[in-house]
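User: Could you walk me through two proteins back to back? I'd like the raw sequence and the structure tokens for each, with a short line separating them so I can tell where one ends and the next begins.

Assistant: Of course. Protein one, sequence then structure:
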Amino acid sequence: MRDEKIKIYNGTIITPYRLIKNGTVIITNGIITGVSEGNADVADAIEIDAKGKYIAPGFIDMHIHGGGGYDFMDGDVNSFLKIAETHVKYGTTAMCPTTLTSELSNLLQTLDHYEEANKLNTSGSQFLGMHLEGPYFSKNQCGAQDPRYMRNPDPEEYKKVLYHSHSIRRWSAAPELKGALEFGRYLKSLGVIAAIAHTDAIYEEVLEAFESGYTLATHFYSAMSGVSRRNAFRYAGAVEAGYLIDEMDVEIIADGIHLPPPLLKLVYKIKGASRTALITDAMRATGMPPGKSILGNINDGLEVIVEDGVAKLMDRSAFAGSVATADRLVRTMVKDADVPLLEVIQMITSTPARILGVGNRKGSILEGKDADIVIFDADINIDMTIIKGEVIYNANNEMHKNSLRIIEG
């Protein structure tokens, strides 16, 4: 069978190293086979005119709960598919579906639904493995997580979960809990990413956890201890540990609300683009009109109110979830945090790809990698989302499947 080629031209290509103006990307059977300056002559290729816009790697969201009116904890396969279809419109080509604290039975059910959805998912963002957020958290830092289900790591329980599904890519826990260090070492032995989250740990506890396998800080700053006093003495917390441990990666909800611009600038200044991943942490209300919504399972989740671009508890005493999309993260970092576009794109492509262990095939526009590509304008409005060489979303024609023969981007 003859190779099917696609040529994307007349755009500014964002590579890991530079911007290539008026460049061309060549795709053959879903793989990038050429990146060059100018309008390359490619015989028998399907052509996509980027019209002077940016051609970037697809966005990778390694922490996401829902969108479009659905949550991964809803208890059905359709929710997985609908969330993936929602976020592909905002440039997300790959994601890690994320759980909330729950009963063991609900967790196992969600893992089963992931397995089935992963086989059926052809019209949305790809799945890169599950992220289990909890239930091993500190009740002092529960945030919007349900404290009823929070508990210490139980070897019998977590080994059962990890045996039940081999699709778990990462697991977040509070490292100061009894048994948490053993848990981290066990995750590391299986190649599962251990992350600190919803934690009241001090620096010394986080350092010991890092040595035991916890290499990532989940939604840095959110539900995480900072400087505190204990018996009159001042202690550095998990936030300071994230800064002081150079090799620890951090992920941030860069919506400009969970972390305002000064903190976004601080994270970038200290950790840099190579150690900072942008995440949406998006809930079901993402992509929906403001108003009441549910965090978690549609039947027994937490009622919240969405206003001012964020979800809040009904009494408005605290944030209760994010309604950010990937394009909004990029826009906020560029326009409000004054970070160069090249490095912002790194934070939402190659950095999460490296953390998740898929950097050899995703996260950058280089020959030999999957053709996961997003085309957007100077205001980060998404024009087209391409996954493995297939146009899945075109802003001019909404969702597309098997629709590569589009000449204009």
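----
Protein two, same layout:
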Amino acid sequence: MIFKQLSQKIEVKDVVFDEIFPPGIKAVADRHWTPVAVAKMAAEYLTEKQDQKVLDIGAGAGKFCLVGAASTKGFFYGVEQRKALTKMSRKIADRYNIMNVEFINSNINEISFSDYDAFYFFNSFFENIDTSNPIDNTILPDSGLYQVYSDYVREQLDKTPVGTRLVTYWSKWDEIPTNFELVDSAFNGFLSFWKKVS
């Protein structure tokens, strides 16, 4: 029902959407998963052209990709290092027959950005430097990884074509190359819309 509502542009509240997740995943939703309204706005910006391939850099429970796939005509790919979260996201997509989404169990530095057209980033590396509210205990924090992953994303984005779109949410902007221009923002400045200009 919720995915049909999203496809029909009917508002879906997070408290309703998050019921698709198991209790432990639902419990950390407010901190770690993209709100539905944010995901819809970001996905619409990233899929301005037909059949855009959007990469979610650190997909977590897959919420952004699931919302984006249900509410736009884009193709959404979520890369996530936690195997259990990737498996869960795939099961949800299968259960609700969401065909334009794929979840990849991998570290981001094993992904080539040249395979994608647009990018979404909800500060997924921050868990390496902020241990106050972890997703789970399967990944040990490593402050060095924050910089390693941010540098890799910046290098990959730097290689993308002029006109490439990027959306960041709650980002420190460490992963954004200087040739990306901020074109708009929303949600009190926490959601930022970028385009590569050179």
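The chain has eight helices and seven strands.

Let me know if you want the two compared in more detail.
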